[in-house]
Amino acid sequence: MTMEIVAEFLGIDTDKGAWEYFIRHWRHQFPALSLRANYAKQAENLWQVTQRVQVQLATQLGHW
Question: Cα(47)–Cα(23) distance, rounded to whole angstroms?
């Protein structure tokens, strides 16, 4: 979920783009990040929770 929120903040709006970004720049921090299909499935399963967290953060930061 954190990776999805960071990707959105960076303007990356696809699961593929987010996965590629983290593989390219942060793989050493996420050694278990392997298949894009696994990443996409987890992101899909958490999208509603991620959306609520984003709204909460934006509200607290005064951007909503």
Answer: 20
User: Which is nearest to 43 in space by CA: 9, 11, 7?
Assistant: 7
User: Using CA atoms, how far apart are residues 5 and 19, in angstroms rounded to an integer?
Assistant: 12
Domain extent for 48: 2-61
pTM: 0.67
- 27 contacts 39 by C-beta, under 8 angstroms: no
Number of CB atoms found within 10 A of residue 17's CB: 13
Q: Residue 63 has what pLDDT?
A: 67
For residues 15-23, average pLDDT: 91
Report the alpha-carbon distance of residue 20 to residue 36 in Å, rounded.
Answer: 8
Total tally of structural domains belonging to the chain: 1
